[in-house]
C-alpha cells in the first residue's frame, strides 16, 4: 500500500518534529500576497505565540503539580484557598494582554474594511454552483466553472483524483486582475449564500442574495491563486472553486483586449456532425445541468426531476427549448446560452442519459429570429 | 440515613410504594428524579452513538479525496444531523439527566420541584428526536443545509424535500422540553434547598446549572421563533428572510446566533460545574476560589448574549460592528482564564490521585484550554477572515465539545455511577478507555487545525489532494475514538450489573463526604432520599465564610 507507506512516513516525520518538504503536510496559515494577508499572518503568529507562552506557563504549573503533588508520593494536601491578590493578578494580566492584542487587530480590521479609492471594481456573483464575474464599466463578463477534468473525476470516480492537476481547485475561466492595483469587489448572489475566499488574498466575504458586500485587494506579485466557496450552498458546495490570476499591467491590458475581442465574436452557427454535437453537448451539460440532474440524468428523487425518460426532454424540441429559456420556480432560465449551445445541449439530452429520440438539432434551427448571438 | 427515610415513608402512608413500580410502566409514568435522570442519561448515551455513527460516515467519506461512499447531499445531511443529534439529543439531555440525578441529592431535596412536568419534558425530548430522525427516511432526505438551517438554502425546493416542517416541529418540541427542564431546575434550586444551604453554599454544579437554566429560558424561544419564521417563509408566503420580498437572509443569521452563542455555553457551563466538583475531591483540597468561580460563570453567561455576531465576521458588517463584536468576544477570555487558573490552583499542593474521573478532568482542563486558545485566535476579527468556515473552526469547536463536554460527561459517569448503583466500575478498563479516548481525540481533531489553516473549507465531501494526508490521519483518529467509546458502553452496563463486585462505601471516594451531600447518603442511593432535609451541609468549599 503506497498510501499506507506515505502515511507512515508522515507520522514518523511528525514524531521527529520535522516538516516534510512536500506541501501535503502544510501546518500553518499562508502569508499570502497582499499587505492585508501579511498583516493577518503577523496577527495570527503573534496571538499563536501568546497562546503558546500562556499554555506553557499554565500547563507547566499543572504538570509540575501533577508530578509532585500526588498522594502516591506521600504529598499531603495543603488546605489553602481564596487569595484575593492572586485572583486580581490573574484577572489583570490577561486583560492587559488582550488590550495589547486589540491594538494591531483594530488597525488591520480598519485596513481590511477600507474600500475607498479603488482603481477598478469587479462584481462577483455567487450561483449554484459557479462564480460569475463582471468587470464594472467594461463589457467583460464571464462565468467561472469547475474545470471539466475535476468535474468528470468527482462525478464518475473514473480516475484517481491525484492524477488530476489542481483537482477541485481549477476553473475553466479564471478571474484576471492587475498587480499593485487596488481592486474593489462587490459581492452578491442570486440564489443562496455563498462565500468568496482566496487564502492568498487574506480574506473571505459572504455573497448574500439580494444584498451587496464590498471587499478589496491589491496583489503584490504576479501568480495564480486558488480558493473555494466557504459557505455551505447546497449539494455541490465543494465544487465551485475560485482561481485568480494576477498579472503585470501590460499583460493584463493584453488580456482585456483579447477577452473583449472574444466576447464580441459571434458563435459559429454552421452545421455539425452528430458526434460533434454530442461531444460539445456533454460539455454544456457538465457546465450547466449536471449539478442538479446528475451525470446520468437521473435527478434526485423527491427533489430534482430525472431527464431520463422525461416528457419535456424527449417531447417536441421546441417546447424543450422554450422551457429552458423560461426557467421555472425551481430551475433558473438558461437564456444565457447561445443557439450553438442550445443545439448541442438538446441533442445531447435527447440522445444520451438513457434517452433515444434519434433527432439531431443544428444551431441554425435553434437560433431565435432576433438572436444577435 | 436510609433507615430514617424508610421510617418517614411508613409514617406518611402505609400502602404507598417504597420502591419503584415493577415493569415497563415504571419508566413511562415515573416522576422520580432518579428514574428520570437515568432515562435522560441512557437516551443521551444512545444518541451519542447515533450521532457518532454519522460522524463515522463523514470521516469515512473524507478518508481519501474523491467521492467513495455517499452522495454530496447525503453527506450534507450527515453533517447537519450529526450536529443536531449531538447537541439536542446527546449533550443537552445528558446534562439534564445529571441535573435530575444530582441537584436534589446535592441540595438535600426529596425530588425535583415539578415531578410530573419532569416526566413530560423527557418524553417530549424523545418525541422531538424521533421526529427529527424520521426525516432520514423521507423523500429528499434529512435536512442538509447545516445545523444552523440558514435560509435561503434550507428553504430551497431543490435542496430540502419534505423534511423541513418535520425538522422545525422537532426543534419546537426539543425547545419546549428544554424550557420545561430549565423551569424545573430553577424552581427546585430556589425552593427545595435544605434550609441550611444558602445560595453561596451550593455546590458549583448546582450553580452552573442554575445559570444554564436561565440561558435556556432566554434563548430557546428565540430559536423557536427563528425556525417558525422559516416555516412561514416556506409555506405562508412571508418574506422575513427573502430579499425579493423585502426581507433579509442575514437577519436569520443574527437571530440564530443570538440563540446559538448562549447555546454553546449551555453545553459548556455544566461541564465547568462537573470539573469544579471532581477536581477538589481527587486533589483532596477545597476548590481554590469558590466565589470567583460563581462570578466567572455568571460573567460568561452574561457575555454570551452580547457576542453573537463573531460567528458572522465575514457576513458583511460595518467596521463598528466588527470591532465591537471583536472586543466583546475577547473579554470572554478573562472569566474563562479565571476558571482555568482556579482548577490549576486547586490541584496545586494537593494530594492527587488519578482515578478515571480525575484523568478525564485533567484532560478536560488541558484540551478545553486549547479550544479556548483557538477561540481567542478567532475572536480577532481580521484573522477570522481567514479562519472562518474552515476546518480550523471545526477543530476549535470540537475541542470545546468533545474533550470538554463529552469528556466531563464521561467523568461524571465514572464519578457518580458507583454512588447511583452501589457498584464499582472496573478501574483498569476505565483507564484504558481514558487513554484511548484522550490520544485518539487528538489524532482526530488536532490535524484539522492544519487543514483549516492550509485552506480546507468545512462541510465539503471531497477535497483537493493537498489535504489528503491530514484528512486520512484525522479519519484514523476518528475511527479509534469511535471504537473506544464502546468500552464506555461496556463499563456502564457492567457497572449497573454489579461491576467489580466490590462493595462501595457511602463516600465512594476518600473524604468525598466533605465535598458534597450526596456522599453522605447510602450507596446505592435509595429510591427516595432527603424526605427530611439534612441539618448540616458540607461547606468544604466555603470554609472562610463560616
Give a written overview of the molecule.
The complex is a heterodimer of chains A (373) and B (546). With 373 residues, chain A is an alpha+beta fold. Chain A has three domains: 21-113, Helix Hairpins (Orthogonal Bundle), CATH 1.10.287.90; 121-264, Cupredoxins -  blue copper proteins (Immunoglobulin-like), CATH 2.60.40.420; 274-366, Cytochrome Bc1 Complex, Chain D, domain 2. Helices cover 41% and strands 16% of the residues of chain A. Chain A contains eleven helices and ten strands. A five-stranded mixed β-sheet of chain A has the order 3-2-1-5-8, with no helix packed on it. Chain A is elongated. The two termini of chain A are 54 Å apart. Mean pLDDT of chain A is 91; it is low at 18-23. Chain B has 546 residues and is mainly alpha-helical. Chain B is built from 16 helices and no strands. Chain B has helices at residues 2-12, 25-29, 33-61, 72-107, 115-134, 163-191, 204-235, 249-283, 290-304, 319-331, 333-347, 356-379, 381-387, 391-421, 427-454, 468-496. The longest helix of chain B has 36 residues, at 72-107. Chain B starts with a helix and ends in a 50-residue tail after the last helix. The chains are: A alpha+beta (373), B mainly alpha (546). Chains A and B meet through α1, α2, α3, α4 and β7 of A and α4, α8, α9, α10 and α11 of B.
Amino acid at each position: 500500500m503506497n498510501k499506507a507507506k506515505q502515511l507512515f512516513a508522515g507520522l514518523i516525520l511528525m514524531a521527529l518534529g520535522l516538516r516534510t518538504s512536500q506541501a501535503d503536510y502544510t501546518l500553518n496559515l499562508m502569508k499570502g500576497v497582499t499587505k492585508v494577508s501579511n498583516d493577518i499572518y503577523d496577527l495570527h503568529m503573534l496571538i499563536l505565540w501568546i497562546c503558546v507562552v500562556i499554555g506553557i506557563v499554565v500547563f507547566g504549573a499543572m504538570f509540575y503539580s501533577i508530578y509532585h503533588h500526588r498522594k502516591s508520593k506521600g504529598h499531603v494536601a495543603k488546605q489553602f484557598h481564596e487569595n484575593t491578590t492572586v485572583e486580581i493578578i490573574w484577572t489583570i494580566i490577561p486583560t492587559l494582554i488582550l488590550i495589547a492584542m486589540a491594538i494591531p487587530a483594530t488597525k488591520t480590521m480598519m485596513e481590511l474594511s477600507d474600500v475607498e479609492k479603488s482603481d477598478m471594481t469587479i462584481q462577483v456573483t455567487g450561483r449554484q454552483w459557479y462564480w460569475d464575474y463582471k468587470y464594472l464599466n467594461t463589457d467583460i463578463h464571464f462565468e467561472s466553472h469547475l474545470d471539466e477534468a475535476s468535474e468528470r473525476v468527482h462525478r464518475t470516480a473514473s480516475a484517481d483524483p491525484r492524477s488530476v492537476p489542481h483537482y477541485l481547485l481549477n476553473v475553466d475561466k479564471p478571474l484576471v486582475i492587475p498587480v499593485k492595483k487596488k481592486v474593489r469587489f462587490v459581492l452578491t448572489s442570486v440564489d443562496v449564500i455563498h462565500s468568496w475566499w482566496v487564502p492568498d488574498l487574506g480574506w473571505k466575504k459572504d455573497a448574500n442574495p439580494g444584498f451587496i458586500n464590498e471587499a478589496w485587494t491589491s496583489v503584490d506579485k504576479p501568480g495564480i491563486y486558488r480558493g473555494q466557496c466557504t459557505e455551505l450552498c447546497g449539494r455541490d458546495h465543494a465544487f465551485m472553486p475560485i482561481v485568480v490570476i494576477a498579472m503585470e499591467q501590460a499583460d493584463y491590458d493584453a488580456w482585456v483586449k483579447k477577452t473583449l475581442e472574444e466576447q464580441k465574436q459571434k458563435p459559429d452557427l454552421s452545421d455539425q456532425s452528430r458526434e460533434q454535437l454530442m461531444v460539445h453537448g456533454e460539455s454544456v451539460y457538465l457546465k450547466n445541468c449536471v449539478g442538479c440532474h446528475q451525470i446520468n440524468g437521473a435527478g434526485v428523487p423527491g427533489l430534482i426531476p430525472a431527464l431520463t425518460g422525461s416528457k419535456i426532454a424527449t417531447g417536441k424540441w421546441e417546447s424543450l427549448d422554450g422551457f429552458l429559456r423560461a426557467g421555472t420556480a425551481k430551475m433558473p432560465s438558461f437564456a444565457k446560452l447561445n443557439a450553438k449551445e442550445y443545439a448541442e445541449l438538446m441533442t445531447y439530452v435527447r440522445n444520451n442519459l438513457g434517452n433515444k429520440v434519434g433527432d439531431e438539432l443544428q444551431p441554425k434551427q435553434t437560433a431565435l429570429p432576433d438572436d444577435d448571438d | 440515613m436510609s433507615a430514617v427515610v424508610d421510617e418517614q415513608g411508613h409514617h406518611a402512608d402505609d400502602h404507598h410504594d417504597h420502591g419503584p413500580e415493577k415493569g415497563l410502566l415504571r419508566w413511562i409514568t415515573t416522576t422520580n428524579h432518579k428514574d428520570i435522570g437515568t432515562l435522560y442519561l441512557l437516551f443521551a448515551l444512545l444518541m451519542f452513538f447515533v450521532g457518532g455513527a454519522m460522524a463515522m460516515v463523514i470521516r469515512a467519506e473524507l478518508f481519501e479525496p474523491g467521492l467513495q461512499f455517499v452522495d454530496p447531499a447525503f453527506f450534507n445531511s450527515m453533517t447537519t444531523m450529526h450536529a443536531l443529534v449531538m447537541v439536542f439529543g446527546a449533550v443537552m439531555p445528558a446534562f439534564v439527566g445529571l441535573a435530575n440525578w444530582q441537584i436534589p441529592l446535592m441540595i438535600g431535596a426529596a425530588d425535583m420541584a415539578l415531578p410530573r412536568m419532569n416526566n413530560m419534558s423527557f418524553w417530549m425530548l424523545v418525541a422531538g428526536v424521533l421526529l427529527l430522525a424520521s426525516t432520514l427516511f423521507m423523500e429528499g432526505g434529512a435536512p442538509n443545509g447545516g445545523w444552523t438551517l440558514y435560509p435561503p438554502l434550507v428553504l430551497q425546493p431543490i435542496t430540502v424535500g419534505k423534511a423541513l416542517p418535520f425538522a422545525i416541529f422537532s426543534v419546537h418540541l426539543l425547545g419546549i422540553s428544554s424550557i420545561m427542564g430549565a423551569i424545573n431546575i430553577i424552581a427546585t434550586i430556589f425552593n427545595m434547598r435544605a434550609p441550611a444551604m444558602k445560595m453561596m453554599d451550593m455546590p458549583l454544579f448546582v450553580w452552573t446549572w442554575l445559570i444554564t437554566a436561565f440561558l435556556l429560558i432566554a434563548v430557546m424561544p428565540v430559536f423557536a421563533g427563528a425556525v417558525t419564521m422559516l416555516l412561514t417563509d416556506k409555506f405562508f408566503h412571508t418574506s422575513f428572510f427573502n430579499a425579493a420580498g423585502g426581507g433579509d437572509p442575514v437577519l436569520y443569521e443574527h437571530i440564530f446566533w443570538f440563540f446559538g452563542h448562549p447555546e454553546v455555553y449551555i453545553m459548556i457551563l455544566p461541564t465547568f460545574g462537573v470539573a469544579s466538583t471532581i477536581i477538589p475531591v481527587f486533589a483532596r483540597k477545597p476548590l481554590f476560589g469558590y466565589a470567583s468561580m460563581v462570578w466567572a460563570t455568571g460573567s460568561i453567561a452574561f457575555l454570551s448574549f452580547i457576542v453573537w455576531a463573531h460567528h458572522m465576521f465575514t457576513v458583511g458588517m460595518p467596521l463598528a460592528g466588527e470591532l465591537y463584536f471583536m472586543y466583546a468576544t475577547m473579554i470572554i477570555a478573562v472569566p474563562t482564564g479565571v476558571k482555568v487558573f482556579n482548577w490549576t490552583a486547586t490541584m496545586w499542593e494537593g494530594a492527587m490521585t488519578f482515578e478515571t474521573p480525575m484523568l478525564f478532568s485533567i484532560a478536560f482542563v488541558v484540551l478545553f484550554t486549547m479550544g479556548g486558545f483557538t477561540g481567542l485566535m478567532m475572536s480577532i476579527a481580521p484573522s477570522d477572515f481567514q479562519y472562518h468556515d474552515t476546518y480550523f473552526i471545526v477543530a476549535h469547536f470540537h475541542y470545546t465539545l468533545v474533550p470538554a463536554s463529552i469528556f466531563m460527561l464521561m467523568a461524571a459517569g465514572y464519578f457518580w455511577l458507583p454512588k447511583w448503583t452501589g457498584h464499582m466500575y472496573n478501574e483498569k478498563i476505565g483507564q484504558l478507555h481514558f487513554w484511548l479516548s484522550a490520544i485518539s481525540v487528538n489524532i482526530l481533531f488536532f490535524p484539522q487545525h492544519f487543514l483549516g489553516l492550509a485552506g480546507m473549507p468545512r462541510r465539503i465531501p471531497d477535497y483537493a489532494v493537498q489535504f489528503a494526508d491530514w484528512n486520512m490521519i484525522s479519519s484514523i483518529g476518528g475511527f479509534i475514538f469511535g471504537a473506544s467509546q464502546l468500552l464506555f458502553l461496556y463499563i456502564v452496563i457492567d457497572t449497573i450489573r454489579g461491576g467489580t463486585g466490590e462493595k462501595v462505601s457511602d463516600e465512594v471516594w476518600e473524604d468525598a463526604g466533605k465535598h458534597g451531600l450526596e456522599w453522605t447518603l447510602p450507596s446505592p442511593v435509595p429510591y427516595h432520599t432527603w424526605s427530611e432535609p439534612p441539618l448540616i451541609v458540607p461547606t468544604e468549599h466555603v470554609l472562610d465564610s463560616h
